[in-house]
Specification:
Blueprint (H helix, E strand, L loop, with lengths): L3 H21 L2 H13 L1 H16 L9 H15 L7
Amino acid sequence: MVDINELRQAQQLEAMKKHLLGKAVTKEALERLGRVRTVNPDLAGQAELYILQIYSQGKLKGPVTDPQMKDVLRVLAERKGISIRRK
């Protein structure tokens, strides 16, 4: 049985995460992350956590751009042994 308070809390956390990601990454990088999420939700989740961590630590000089997002995704994919094919 699902507790309504837990469900609300999870929804609030997700909304807060989306809000912070909106500040931490550019629109293009956020779109790329969304496309990656449809194919590989685990990789997208890891990228989100990484970006939110460095954002909360104040290590970002500006929002993460699309080329930077590609680099983050590439590094995380290499750690997991995931191959990325480009068309």
